[in-house]
TrEMBL record:
InterPro entries: AB_hydrolase_1, AB_hydrolase_fold, Epox_hydrolase-like. Belongs to the AB hydrolase superfamily. Epoxide hydrolase family. The lineage of its organism: Eukaryota, Fungi, Dikarya, Ascomycota, Pezizomycotina. Keywords: Hydrolase. This is Alpha/beta-hydrolase. Coiled coil: none annotated. One of its GO terms (molecular function) is hydrolase activity. Residues 41-319 form the AB hydrolase-1 domain.
């Protein structure tokens, strides 16, 4: 089913590249048109999906906007990482792949737009970049804003585990972190079947929006990737890092007051994330951002679940464009 993803992005006018750096499969356009008033948007998908997640939103964005849409390391058609699988490692690998195909070596303004796992990567990259992470500094990439789609902070999610309802809803966090056990069970059950089951478990209740989520053979595309043993393992290693090294890193951030210090958009399904364990999304993020004035919060209603970029592509695109306009006015 990879050919369906490739054909869709070709139809949307994006070129495909598999980078020599990290083996990242990505789709991109207008990389020669990046400027302070036309920053690059890096669209980073979540679990259990691929870059195909953005197929409905891209046609709603102005044609001149530069885009870079990768499959996460080990997901989709991207090569898996051999050692560390932290959000910082994932993020650096993605940005190294991006840098390798950018013309010249000038400083490039970019906005990270992440959903689910991708949003956690965006969070990690912004904080690490602001803290002067050497590997990021060398790339000459200026992260001017991050959009976090339908997540709460990783460390906070683990602390919410004392709530029974959250443990049930997020059972996969601990399960997948037990890599070898999870691998045996998922292969026996069927990786593709597992991915499709979770997507429907987390999707919303609006049938018309569910049809959008499923459009373009999306369930078959996502399922076919997760039928691959390598994708199952990479995704489990991702969650293992999320239960250990990522949590430690976020704890150190909080202890040392290394916070998000760029404009951040919190966009989520009000009846999904907004109802999780009675936690207000804005309140959950305030302690993770340097100044509350940097936060823009948008909750999408009408039975929208976890997959806002597909279930609510129009609202998501409109919110992003309005928010990006405010960022451009600050950095131009």
């Amino acid at each position: 089913m990879a050919e369906i993803q490739d054909a869709k992005y070709e139809q949307l006018g994006l070129s495909k590249t598999v980078s020599q750096v990290g083996g990242i499969n990505a789709y991109h356009r207008n990389l020669d048109k990046i400027s302070s008033t036309n920053p690059l948007l890096v669209l980073i998908h979540g679990y259990p999906q691929s870059a195909y997640e953005w197929r409905l939103m891209i046609p709603l964005l102005p044609a001149e906007i530069p885009l870079f849409c990768p499959d996460l390391p080990g997901y989709g058609q991207s090569k898996a990482m051999s050692e560390q699988h932290t959000k910082l490692d994932f993020g650096i690998t993605i940005l190294e792949a991006l840098r390798s195909i950018l013309p010249g070596n000038q400083i490039v303004p970019l906005i990270l737009i992440g959903h689910d796992r991708g949003a956690r990567i965006a969070h990690r990259l912004q904080v690490s970049s602001s803290a002067g992470e050497p590997q990021l500094k060398e790339l000459n990439l200026n992260i001017i804003g991050i959009a976090l789609l339908d997540i709460l902070p990783t460390k906070l999610m683990w602390s919410l585990g004392s709530e029974a309802a959250v443990q049930v809803g997020s059972f996969h966090w601990a399960f997948l972190a037990n890599v070898e056990l999870a691998m045996e069970m998922l292969q026996a059950y069927g990786g593709g079947k597992w991915a499709q089951k979770l997507i429907m478990r987390w999707a919303g209740s609006n049938e018309k929006r569910l049809d959008k989520l499923k459009s373009g053979d999306a369930m078959d595309v996502y399922g076919s990737f997760f039928d691959k043993k390598s994708v199952l393992r990479a995704s489990c290693e991702d969650y293992k890092a999320g239960a250990s090294l990522d949590v430690t890193a976020q704890g150190e951030d909080q202890d040392n007051r290394r916070l998000i210090d760029a404009p951040v958009l919190l966009l989520y399904g009000k009846e999904y994330l907004g109802a999780k364990a009675n936690v207000k999304v804005l309140d959950a993020w305030i302690d993770w951002v340097k100044d509350q004035s940097l936060i823009t919060e948008i909750a999408i209603q009408d039975g929208v679940g976890h997959f806002v970029a597909e279930e609510a592509a129009e609202e998501t695109a409109e919110a992003l464009l309005n928010w990006i306009e405010t960022i451009q006015g600050k950095v131009a």
